[in-house]
Task: inverse folding
């Protein structure tokens, strides 16, 4: 029997011919990512292993994203301690305030994740790296510390589930809609826990890297171990100017084993929204059109990319955001921010009445930059809507695509972009 | 291992195990003062060293924070038994040396005295006299747990090979 792409990656990076689901392997890790608010703990634990030098200064990636710019003295002090420990270890790639972005965006756009390799990060959305055909995995402080010391991590080889996506993408339908559609289709009942989710088929091949990142990003919220898209021409073109290292294309074998295969016809996927306070409580936007809200948020590792800002600019060009709505837009990285300025998207958004903030996890982490207060109804293009996620437990969060957010801020009510 | 059972439900997320606002600290001992406080404010007063936390489906879902299993461990919890765990919680628990056992079926009620045999993957309810089988943990995981976690295991063994190799 053949192997899935994830099995091949785990075999190749543990010096084996073959691995099977359920097996435990120590794998070579290509890159280890940690961020401002957990990074010092990682370095402390790393030191407790008796180590002073990381396994490879070029492959431990440090990013300031959750706490920047610091909204209070406590975080400012934490950031100073974090900077000190990163500099002490002479880390080559330190994306600190001024060069920052959300860690998962940085890892992909700066070429720190490569097809066929394994990258780990101390944040749950490290699944994003699957977009380039890497195994991207979220880990805790101990895993990161051990990998910083040894370049290795333990993994259980996951069973595979295939999502075969066919059909034509419809106007205004984005990868986020497919992601929410799958969330609603699968419902949260644990049967995808520990699994690798493989996204393939003509509609995936037609998807740009931004869309693939959105799709893989939300894999964690299905309970899975990782999500992956096999590398193709789109991947190669994206990586060419940025890849930090060589890579080989890998595919699943035609006779690889899948625990389940789900077929989705994307031409039937419509603009979709998750209602408060559950991610799998999804409906077509059309079903709840007219629902009022007062805050809008677009950014995050899920939907803060240039393609997301582009579709919003297209919708908001020459229009004004409803007077009762406050909108915050946070580009996912400095690169995205700069591109959006050069392309004029931010001018369009600001003229429409949006507030722009410097790249960070922002309100999605519930820490700063537009957190939700009591009674807020937030329309967000982020990734989680559980109670209290963006701040107040007395706030409601609707999750949807940047296109739906842009269409809705014009009316102040949830609006299907196809009806504009 | 032996302890008294504390029984809770399904989908207990990392925020209910230890609220995010208490986790921006390097002082792990301080986590015990807030463990499970939104779920059961009395838990931290009731729990005795070695007690067993029993939950349903998907225990530990939510964030990747390692403080969740650490908070339970420093509060005295000896073993967590659940129908199944969220994957990041599961690996974090092994890594910090908190035994976690997947037990699909059992009759444990709050207050039951329970004996756990990690090597055999067996859970014994002293009240009912019944034994329940857990999903067997691979030997290397039991070794990591016995060492007190992955850092201690690596210091002890200095190697990253799996036992069966």
Result:
């Amino acid at each position: 029997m053949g192997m899935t792409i994830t099995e091949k990656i785990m075999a190749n990076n543990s010096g084996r011919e073959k691995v099977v689901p359920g097996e435990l392997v120590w794998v070579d890790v290509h890159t280890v990512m940690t961020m401002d608010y957990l990074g010092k703990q990682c370095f402390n634990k790393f030191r407790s292993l008796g180590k002073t030098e990381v396994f490879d200064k070029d492959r431990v990636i440090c990013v300031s994203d959750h706490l920047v710019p610091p909204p209070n003295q406590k975080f400012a002090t934490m950031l100073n301690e974090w900077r000190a420990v990163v500099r002490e270890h002479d880390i080559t790639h330190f994306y600190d305030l001024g060069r920052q972005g959300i860690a998962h965006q940085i890892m992909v756009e700066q070429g720190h994740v490569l097809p066929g390799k394994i990258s780990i990060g101390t944040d749950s959305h490290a699944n994003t790296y699957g977009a380039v055909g890497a195994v991207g995995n979220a880990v805790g402080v101990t895993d990161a510390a051990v990998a910083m010391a040894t370049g290795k991590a333990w993994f259980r080889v996951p069973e595979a589930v295939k999502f075969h996506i066919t059909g034509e993408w419809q106007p205004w339908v984005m990868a986020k809609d497919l992601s929410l559609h799958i969330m609603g289709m699968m419902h949260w009942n644990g049967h995808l826990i520990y699994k690798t989710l493989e996204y393939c088929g003509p509609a995936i091949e037609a998807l740009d890297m931004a869309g693939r990142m959105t799709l893989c990003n939300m894999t964690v919220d299905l309970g899975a171990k990782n999500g992956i898209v096999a590398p193709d021409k789109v991947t190669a073109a994206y990586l060419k100017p940025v890849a930090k290292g060589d890579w080989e294309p890998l595919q699943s074998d035609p006779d690889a084993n899948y625990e389940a295969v789900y077929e989705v016809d994307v031409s039937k996927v419509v603009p979709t929204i998750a209602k408060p306070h559950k991610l799998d409580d999804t409906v077509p936007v059309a079903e709840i059109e007219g629902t009022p809200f007062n805050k809008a948020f677009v950014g995050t590792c899920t939907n803060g990319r240039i393609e997301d800002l582009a579709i919003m600019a297209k919708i908001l060009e020459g229009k004004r955001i409803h007077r009762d709505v406050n909108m915050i837009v946070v580009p996912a990285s400095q690169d995205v921010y700069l591109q959006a300025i050069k392309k004029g998207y931010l001018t369009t958004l600001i003229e429409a009445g949006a507030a722009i903030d410097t790249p960070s996890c922002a309100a999605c982490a519930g820490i700063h930059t537009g957190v939700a207060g009591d009674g807020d109804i937030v329309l967000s293009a982020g990734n989680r809507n559980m109670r209290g996620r963006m701040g107040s437990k007395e706030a409601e969060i609707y999750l949807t695509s940047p296109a739906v957010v842009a269409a809705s801020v014009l009316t102040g009510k949830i609006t299907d972009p196809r009806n504009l | 291992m032996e302890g008294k059972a504390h029984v809770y439900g399904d989908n207990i997320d990392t925020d209910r195990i230890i609220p995010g606002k208490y986790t921006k600290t390097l002082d792990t001992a301080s986590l015990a003062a807030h463990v499970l406080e939104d779920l059961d404010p009395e838990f931290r007063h009731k729990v005795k060293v070695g007690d067993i936390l029993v939950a349903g489906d998907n225990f530990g879902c939510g964030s990747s924070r390692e403080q969740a299993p650490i908070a339970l461990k420093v509060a005295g919890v000896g073993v967590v038994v659940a129908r199944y765990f969220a994957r990041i919680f599961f690996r974090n628990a092994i890594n910090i040396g908190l035994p976690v056992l997947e037990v699909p079926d059992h009759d444990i009620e709050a207050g039951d005295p329970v004996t756990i045999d990690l090597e055999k993957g067996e859970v014994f309810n002293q009240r009912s006299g019944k034994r329940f089988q857990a999903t067997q943990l691979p030997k290397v995981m039991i070794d990591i747990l016995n060492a007190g976690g992955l850092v201690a295991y690596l210091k002890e063994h200095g190697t990253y090979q799996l036992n069966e190799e």
Notes: Chain B is about 25% helix and 20% strand. Chain B touches chain A at residues 11, 13, 15, 20, 24, 26, 57-58, 61-66, 84-88, 91-92, 95-96, 138, 140-141, 149-151, 154-155, 160-162 (CB under 8 Å). The CA atoms of residues 36 and 42 of chain B lie 9 Å apart. Chain B has one domain: 2-135.
